[in-house]
Amino acid sequence: MTQLKNPEDAPIDFIALPKIELHAHLSGSISRQTLHEIWLLQQPHTTLPDPLLVMPPGKHDFDLTAFFPLFSSYTYHLINSPSSLSYATSSVLRDFAADGVVYLELRTTPRAIPSADMTKSDYVRCVLETIVQFEREDKRMRTKLILSVDRRNSLPEAQETVALAVEFMLKGVVGLDLCGDPAVGGIERLAPAFAEARRAAPGLGLTLHFAEAECSGSGEELEMLLGWGPQRIGHVIHVSEGMRERIVKRGGMGLELCLSCNVHAGMVCGGFEGHHFGEWWKVDNVAVILCTDDVGVFGSPLSNEYALVAEHFGLERADICALARRGIDTIFGGEEEKVRLREILWSG
Ligand code: IMP
Ligand code: ZN
After folding, report:
1. How far apart are CA 317 and CA 163, in angstroms?
2. Residue 10, pLDDT score
3. What is the CA angle 139-140-146, rounded to 5?
4. What are the transmembrane regions (predicted)?
5. Distance separating alpha carbons of residues 193 and 202, to the nearest angstrom
6. Which of these is catalytic: 21, 105, 212, 256?
7. In 10 A of CB 33, how many CB atoms?
8. 8 given a catalytic annotation
9. What's the whole-number mean pLDDT along residues 135-163?
10. pLDDT tens-digit profile of 114-130?
């Protein structure tokens, strides 16, 4: 059990602490063990190597040039049917619930799988059905879905994702995301898709990967992304002082910070102590939310992210509880869910 002895306080049980997870990519959240189980089920019909060889247990350092190809060259070949997608999704949900997550916004890029005769719409439906099935058995964790537009997408592909988000809004999709390799530029071509989402479905939340790498942290790109009207932004690493002030001035913006991902992928300097969580967590007027990003790859569950900030930034029990509650107002899952979360997170 993840526990930390806080000298001025009782030990904090970070797993028992009810938590909100708002930035988790489905394919990156699948544990190595689950990938291995899926691989075993596909024997002898697969030529893919064992996931435990591709991602040896204990290896959590992946630089970004090795990280992004992992999905297109490996994971997507393994998760290649309704049954493997559903198996992987339910396993991801079980893992988050077992780690004390009470509200999850899972995000995924809709993917057509022609070999299984699956359209992007079938993909989204399969994930949503798996969530419904899971919630029949687990009443404590509620899960909503965010659909991701990949930076590599063409405008028609992005528009298709927006149309799917609108179509499935009443069935559990609550938002849109912009994700993908930050080295891919030219994303102004995607702006009309996000403008269309805002016009057609103002109730859809918007979260954007923001200044994740130096190459995606130019003033022009960040100005443009803020202009798309996100309620939350992810990573927020390469921001100038002026941009920092702009973010604070907007008031109530959610900052999805992912410590282990950033450290293990070499996206920040100075290890955990040098992470910009230290600059943000006491700032009023923004909501810092700890998130895992890709727990299957980087190996640090959300409970451990809380343990890490306690260890490296000296947060005490009251700070940890305040941090866990801070994201409630930024969820995309609606007012009723906020009320439920306030009850759970204030009663502990
Ligand atoms: P999926 O969308 O469920 O298939 O999850 C995998 C996808 O998430 C990858 O192909 C990336 O586009 C995206 N992703 C995962 N981690 C990151 C990240 O740290 N930055 C940007 N995109 C990411
Ligand atoms: Zn991410």
Report:
1. 43
2. 75
3. 95
4. none
5. 13
6. 212
7. 14
8. no
9. 98
10. 999 999 999 999 999 99
